[in-house]
Amino acid sequence: MSTQDFAAWMGQIQSRTETALDRVLPPAHIAPQRLHTAMRYAVLGGGKRVRPLLVHAAGRVAGAAPERLDRAACAVELIHAYSLVHDDMPCMDDDSLRRGKPTVHVQFDEATALLVGDALQSLAFQVLAADLAAEDAAGRVAMLHLLAQAAGSRGMAGGQALDLANVGQSLSPEDLEFMHVRKTGALIRAAVLLGAHCGDGADAAVLERLDHYARAAGLLFQVVDDILDCSASTATLGKTAGKDQLHDKPTYASLLGLAQAREFAAELHARARESLADLGDRAQGLAELTDFIARREF
Amino acid sequence: MSTQDFAAWMGQIQSRTETALDRVLPPAHIAPQRLHTAMRYAVLGGGKRVRPLLVHAAGRVAGAAPERLDRAACAVELIHAYSLVHDDMPCMDDDSLRRGKPTVHVQFDEATALLVGDALQSLAFQVLAADLAAEDAAGRVAMLHLLAQAAGSRGMAGGQALDLANVGQSLSPEDLEFMHVRKTGALIRAAVLLGAHCGDGADAAVLERLDHYARAAGLLFQVVDDILDCSASTATLGKTAGKDQLHDKPTYASLLGLAQAREFAAELHARARESLADLGDRAQGLAELTDFIARREF
Questions:
Q1: Can you give the pTM of this predicted structure?
Q2: Residue B140's closest chain A neighbor by CA?
Q3: For position A254, which CATH number holds?
Q4: Which residue of A33, A129, A294, B77 could cross-link A269, Cys pair, CB 3.0 to 4.6 Å?
Q5: Three-class DSSP category at B105
Q6: Beta carbons within 8 Å of B137's beta carbon, 6+ residues apart
């Protein structure tokens, strides 16, 4: 895939994801209107859609149809969107800017933000459980289990808890990795595996390669995030820059220094690409996406 | 079933639900420890377990094995527990007492309470998706869909949003019912239907009777709750009494007056019992449970 082809593919997936999310979110005119308006505000019209991109790119490896992948992509993105809404609340990171717009509790109110997050999480599971083609029921249950585990206390929510507990602490690289594997890694991994589950072309060996890939890519994503938080501007990021330092949160940048954090990112980038080597051409999209994640500047 | 038999059955279901919840909740010594400790604090050792009782009583109608019902009972109770934790937070009802103990954000902190609720919701879906016997995969997906819908923006979370929007408003009985059908009714209905789905003995006609029953029972539960909130003491309830009035929330008691609210409860009680009439002896447990819900004093 040429760089131009990749950019076109990315734009196409982002656009179909937006359409799919628009369809699964309740219309704003249905009661409770304020809640539905706020849910749509939180989800639509922004974001890089990295997780949906991973779902679709991994789905290609398994030969999955894009229509089936949309469902998994929406589910993962809804979990991600809910986590951002709750994470931005005053009792958590207390942030007022997200995707270049006021955060949900600023634009609406705190109670609405709380309920938006809660309802988006329910919607994620509802979407993944809907419109079942009878023949793949067992696979669907496995996907639901995978997503629930990734979102829960031993996945993303647990990572958030560790993130809060780590404020002001000096951590070992192992502790920092333990936290990030959960906070960001779990959902990135779920995106890749859910994509692969949507197709018939991923046997146990392929799934193992993809799992290996996803672990490296998830950590890579977070290291790059840490680097950008302390080197990019708020305008570029569309969210408040420098907030890790402000909140005295240990990051790869603070722990290793910027230069070494960049080296670590390069190492993870190579490790992720390597995991794809045996998968051939069908993993080309995933490889390009990995380069995008490593080189992104926002 | 004699009153004594019913009391024994209720005690037995409450006890096996406690054991089942204890098993599905992550142990407190697993990281993140504080989050897991708080999750266990929020769920274990309290509550009437009305929803698990409904799951088991409806499961009897469908001839379901108690072991299968435990899973559904846990899932529904985890959703209920998460909603209480979030509902008690300062940005919502700002309550400090629940089940006779300090609420989660008081005992721990607000951020932990937020994450406890989030993680309990994920756990509910994880529990319902786990340990799949291959033969009932399609049924399991249907149950997951039902629970997600009941919890979401057009169910429980939507009811909470309406509850907040209604503060200080004078509502019509229709608007009040619209809110309560979502806030409390949706999960009560899900409990009954999930219980029925666990067995093979519920055909479409039986499911329709049970659905009819559940709608009346759900509203009954809420009307009784409204009555108790303004007539019972904090010590008896184990949660703050009189808080609807304090928060200027419209209730059946404030809308109809206490005497008429009691009449409405009696009418719903009769309607719920009637829905069970055709189901014969196997619905005896559900009938007794309905009497318990109607007559409870805490």
A1: 0.96
A2: A141
A3: 1.10.600.10
A4: A294
A5: helix
A6: A137, A138, A140, A141
